[in-house]
Write a structure and sequence with these properties.
Elements lengths: L13 E8 L5 E8 H10 L3 E4 L4 E4 L8 E8 L6 E7 L21 E4 L2 E4 L13
Parallel strand pairs: 1-6
Antiparallel strand pairs: 1-2, 3-4, 5-6, 7-8
Length: about 130
């Protein structure tokens, strides 16, 4: 059996994906992949997602230059969630890695405190200077 056939795809042909940073174990982002995106990710060694809003494949960093080098692909116990262990690389590959479109290291920058969502992580680079 092909390894892609072992993934439990949802009704739309997608699987949820968590990107986790190698070393720090920070959860950087959550996205989706279709079969082609997962296959390309494994082949290229860089994260390729499926953008539901654009309805197309999205090679992480194609506009921003902030790519995710994949060190390991994992599948959960129910075969319905993929975990990518990645190295988040900046535009010049010497910059601090930015995974979030807001210019932050991680998309998970808000913490519930006293009944309110508080932003706890700073913007590393203005998104207007990241995206073309």
């Amino acid at each position: 059996m092909n390894w892609l056939d072992q993934v439990k795809w949802d009704a739309s042909g997608l699987v949820p994906v968590i990107a986790q940073e190698v070393g720090s174990n920070d959860v950087l982002m959550f996205a989706f992949m279709n079969r082609e995106a997962l296959e390309r990710t494994a082949m290229l060694g860089e994260a390729v997602y499926f953008s539901r809003s654009r309805q197309r494949l999205w090679h992480k960093g194609e506009e921003s230059g902030h790519i995710q080098k994949v060190h390991e692909l994992r599948l959960d116990c129910d075969n319905d969630v993929v975990l990518l262990k990645v190295e988040q690389l900046g535009q010049a590959h010497g910059e601090s890695g930015i995974a979030c479109h807001t210019g932050r290291h991680s998309c998970f920058f808000q913490v519930l405190q006293a009944g309110e969502w508080k932003t706890v992580d700073a913007v590393l680079k203005d998104p207007q200077h990241i995206y073309k």
